[in-house]
């Protein structure tokens, strides 16, 4: 008698897969609900400054995922789920977050995909001023149940700034060039939180009239800055400093006032790192 190969119909296999996947999603959904009801936050941060802020707020125990640039979380071996611009949605989903902190540069399609998975996603744009840094920090604090801690840090920050202002003895405003890129040369311009470093330092931004930060060396030389600050770009920072030193007629060069700042501090918009950077600048700008 002839035996027939009996293969399960394709529709049956598909149905079984859908049922199993549905059970998995149902389990994940109810587990997330239980976490929410118990007040157990599971946070994925897609922005280094927000990750750092969670540590300042003593909320790092809720952090389950972050980007490859989140230095604050390195020692805690937090799962890396993203570069700065491209999150790995599959990795994020396996961590079962109930709050994802995204940047304004996170692709909107990825944001919508996460929301369709019933994940709360909150987006933060890059702050345009020191005041916006504070307001966004408070917003984050309220979001993670650390509002009082956020207000405490903001109060300390304002008090520190008042002390720095009292020590201001400058009669005239020095001209400052703040460089944040090497190829092309990119200057800090108004409408950015880094421009507030210059203002609160008591200086004048030589790029204050520009709408785009790309400049040439001839522009900087013609404005004759009294101080030049360069954000760390690896070995390129010292190379940039050496190139500026070739323009011996510039006041910043004649008076040996070229300084390199750490990008992990200066470029990170948090209340704490803002004051740290401003303090470093105030120590040399007199």
TrEMBL record:
It comes from the Bacteria. The chain crosses the membrane at residues 9-27. Residues 42-286 form the Fe/B12 periplasmic-binding domain. The lineage of its organism: Bacteria, Pseudomonadati, Bacteroidota, Bacteroidia, Bacteroidales. Signal peptide: none annotated. GO terms for biological process: cellular response to iron ion. This is Vitamin B12 ABC transporter BtuF. InterPro entries: ABC_Transporter_SBP, ABC_transptr_periplasmic_BD, Vit_B12_bind_prot. Keywords: Membrane, Signal, Transmembrane, Transmembrane helix.
């Amino acid at each position: 008698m002839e035996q027939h190969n009996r293969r399960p119909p394709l529709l049956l296999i598909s149905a079984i897969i859908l049922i199993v996947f549905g059970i998995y999603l149902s389990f994940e959904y109810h587990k997330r609900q239980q976490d929410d009801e118990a007040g157990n936050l599971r946070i994925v941060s897609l922005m280094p400054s927000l990750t750092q802020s969670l540590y300042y707020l003593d909320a790092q125990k809720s952090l389950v995922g972050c980007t490859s640039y989140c230095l604050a979380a390195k020692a805690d071996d937090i799962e890396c789920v993203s570069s700065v611009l491209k999150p790995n949605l599959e990795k994020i989903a396996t961590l079962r977050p109930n709050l994802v902190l995204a940047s304004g540069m996170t692709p909107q399609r990825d944001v919508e995909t996460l929301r369709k998975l019933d994940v709360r996603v909150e987006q933060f744009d890059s702050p345009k001023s020191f005041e916006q840094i504070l307001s966004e920090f408070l917003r984050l604090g309220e979001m993670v149940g650390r509002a009082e801690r956020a207000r405490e840090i903001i109060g300390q920050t304002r008090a520190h700034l008042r002390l720095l202002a009292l020590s201001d003895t400058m009669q005239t405003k020095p001209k400052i060039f703040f460089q944040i890129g090497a190829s092309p040369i990119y200057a800090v311009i108004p409408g950015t939180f880094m421009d507030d470093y210059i203002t609160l330092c008591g200086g004048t931004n030589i790029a204050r009239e520009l709408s785009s930060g790309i400049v040439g060396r001839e522009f900087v030389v013609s404005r004759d800055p009294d101080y030049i600050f360069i954000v760390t770009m690896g070995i390129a920072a010292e190379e940039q400093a050496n190139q500026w030193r070739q323009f011996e007629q510039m006041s910043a060069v004649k008076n040996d006032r070229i300084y390199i700042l750490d990008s992990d501090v200066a470029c990170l918009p948090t209340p704490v790192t803002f004051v740290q950077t401003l303090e470093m600048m105030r120590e040399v700008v007199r």
